[in-house]
Amino acid sequence: MKNILIFDIEITGHHSEYIGHLVKYIAKNRLSNKYIFIVHYNFHKNFPGIIAMAKTSDNINFVHVSQNEFIKVMSGKLFQRSFGFYNLMKHYAVRHSVKQVILLSFNIFQFALIFKRPKLLIRGILFRPFLKMDNNSTISQLKHTRKILQTRLFLLNKSISIIYILNDIYTANFLNKRFKVDNFKMLPDPVPDIVADPKFSIFKVHNIEPKRKVFLHFGSLSIRKGTNEILYALEKLDNKTMSKIAILFIGKADAAINDLINLKMNLIHSQKPLTKIVYRNEFIPDNQMKSYFEQVDFVLLPNKFVEASSGVLGHALASGKPVIAVNKGLLGNLVSKYKGGYLIKDGSAREIANAISSCIKERQTYKVNNKYIEEHSVNNFAKVILENI
């Protein structure tokens, strides 16, 4: 039996989902190794269901970092945080006598692993690989060059075993060929099989008239998710248009976006009295999340980092709901490939406003995308990460 450390101390969005998938797979398949999950200090409070599922298996152990540890590693500049995360991971690896580590978010470790050579075998998920980055300005070109150099340098580290690229076999193959390695492997971004809460009606809970077209913006609400541009888009829509729609901001918002949402909601409601904007700033139980996706008409997904995959896209496809997304990068490719909705030129407020106006007249119906669900099952995701350890 080997001791395997699984490290992810962030708690929003896919971070908790991925941990839940791995716990379920380990418990269901009775894997023989011992798995130590290093998680956020509030994980047990926010996700008691995952903790309860872990207790059904003798070889799963949850270890919560302290609040002070979390605050310390999250502060400072990027390179400081990289070494902070690395040192914290190494601390728990030594404490629990592990030789293999799975980093559910590899990105923050990149800089530190250029210099550090731990006696560990490391697997990790790399989000937003540089190949899909915009490269049409001097600043973006410089960033692109830095990413190439950074990748080349951390690949010299023999501790790094596998780097997973979500949903993108082309990028994984390209990176292997470019750097003459075989470290990069495609990982299916999982779509969990969730049953909606039959008693939860978004129309009753949020007092939405059935005649309105409902647009959902879900997940970790932030500037990088385009939340601010959606708010600016609503300012551009006239009162007649606003009377025909409801906009739902559902999920945990960062402090800056929380203030902006409250400010814009009050302003728009005062200027356009027929407006219906709903804001629920909290973690959403899985069965209620599924209810939201099943009951809305459209999903707003104007992410700024289009080179990354999106769990929200998976939830939308699994519920047969079209997304509004930017026609760039991996996200744009996935929406196009699986016919998942509407692609806009960019994520600007004007483009989003135009898309919302067009969707009001939409009569096309979308079906659950079974092909995507089969290819991106939770079982496939967990099996790829946990196999051959």
Write a brief caption for the model.
With 389 residues, the protein is α/β, with parallel strands linked by helices.
Helix percentage range? 40-55%
Radius of gyration: 21 Å
Separation, N- and C-terminal Cα atoms: 10 Å
SS elements, strand count: 13
Proportion of beta-strand residues: 15-25%
Question: If strands are numbered along the chain, what order do they take across the biggest sheet?
Answer: 3-2-1-4-5-6-7
- Structural class label: alpha/beta
Overall average pLDDT:
92
The number of helices is: 18
Structure notes:
It is a single chain. The chain is 45% helix and 17% strand. It has 389 residues and is α/β, with parallel strands linked by helices. The strands form 2 sheets. The protein has a 7-stranded parallel beta sheet with strand order 3-2-1-4-5-6-7, sandwiched between helices. A 6-stranded parallel beta sheet has the order 10-9-8-11-12-13, with helices on both faces. Helix 4 runs antiparallel to helix 5 (78-95). The longest helix is centred in the first third of the chain and has 18 residues, at 78-95. The N and C termini lie close together (10 Å).
